[in-house]
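Before going further, learn to read the protein records used in this course. Taken together, the tokens spell out the fold as the letters spell out the chain. A record is reproduced here so that you can trace the correspondence yourselves:

***
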Amino acid sequence: MSSSIRDLNMDLLLMGQAEFSLQNLKSKIITIVWIPNILMTGFRSC
């Protein structure tokens, strides 16, 4: 296994991890933003 292929695999692995954590962060932000909105609209409609 040449070093260049190994480096490429590492880069792909790191990119995959970064993309996954970014999606994770996005879903957390969406949850943090949406929960208060849902609660507020729920209270208003009662």
Remarks:
- Residues 1-46 form one domain.
- The two ends are 65 Å apart (CA to CA).
- Residues 8 and 14 are 10 Å apart (CA to CA).
- Residues 3-45 form the longest helix (43 residues).
